[in-house]
Amino acid sequence: MSKGIVLFSGGRDSTLAAYLATQKNPETNWDLVTYDNHNLMEGNKLGGPKQIGNELSDSVANISGHETIPFFHLFRSLVVLRSELNIQQYGFSTMCLDCRGAMYVKSVLSSDEKGYTKLADGARKSQRYTEQLPGSIEEFTGFLGNNGIELIIPVYNINKMQEVSEHLRNAGFSGKNYELQCLWKRNMAKLPDEDIIKRYVGEELVPLMYESVNLLRKKGTNPELENLVISNNIKRREKATPFNS
Question: Is the confidence at residue 105, as pLDDT, over 90?
Answer without folding.
Answer: yes
